[in-house]
Amino acid sequence: MEAEKSKPVEAEKSKPVEAEPIKVKKTKTIKRVVEVVNEDEKPAEKPKRTRKPSAYNMLLGEFMKKIAIEEQEKDKDERIPRNMRMKRAQEMYREWKAKNVLMVGQQ
User: Is 23 contained in some domain?
Assistant: First the structure.
């Protein structure tokens, strides 16, 4: 008996999926955005505000200045490397804070 030759099965052709149109509910803000985009205008920019530096940043700046002045007087071999100066300023701040917190507590 001869082996029966099977016919190749054809795959069903898929139908393209039709997407429903997106419904956007128009509100006042959307209308305003659409108007701005259409007119190519930018809304009025607020002036940029700057914060005053914190006490910590001001003190660190002062300590860094002190370190820079001290380092100028030293020989090149004795100087603190630049990448270690911030650590030294932080140590100075901790010492200053410990001393001043004790003074505030005594009052």
Answer: no
